[in-house]
UniProtKB/TrEMBL annotation:
Coiled-coil stretches: none
Gene3D superfamilies: Phosphoglycerate mutase-like
CDD domains referenced in this protein's UniProt entry, alphabetically: HP_PGM_like
Origin organism lineage: Bacteria, Bacillati, Actinomycetota, Actinomycetes, Kitasatosporales
InterPro entries: His_Pase_superF_clade-1 (IPR013078), His_PPase_superfam (IPR029033)
Matches recorded under Pfam families: His_Phos_1 (PF00300)
Protein name per the record: Histidine phosphatase family protein
Top-level division of the source organism's lineage: Bacteria
Amino acid sequence: MITALDDLTVDLVPHAQSVAREGWTGKESARPLSPQGLTQAGSLPAVMRDSIDAIYSSPAKRCVQTVEPLARSFGLSIATAPGLATPDGTYQPREWTEGFFSPFQRELGGAWMAGAALAVLIVMGNAHPGGHVVACSHGDVIPVFVAQALALYGHASPPPVVDRGGWHRMRFGTDALTVESHGPVVSLPST
């Protein structure tokens, strides 16, 4: 498929439980994890014990906070990747999402997100050939990321959705992809 991905393992982690959008008055990218989310993030190093070569994250504070305990545990820095970020409410490229194409802005925006995610995936593969990386992103980006990878390798059915505190482990082979879904490490009470 894509040579840079051969033998790459990516643990794709949705950010842990964050402070609710409702009532948050700060910049969306600065919205942090809730106390429960900090607990979820703190439990990841105990279950992600395999060797990790690198950690990537959306620049959003809640994503960076999710992987900080892993980074400390493995003595790694966190590389922020805008391609893992959620759109700011405007889909790109603007010329294709307004005017004549405006009825298709969600589809075109999804394609744009998929391309941005693929670019990050290739960067990770080139930087860590045959390695194991963790990438933290958002609930609206992760399905696009997973769907694109599945389509690249001809898979028809998606894996189960993982809740906050869980992750997808994607193992890229020369001509095959396996995806394992892991449920939340710490179960939180419903609110």
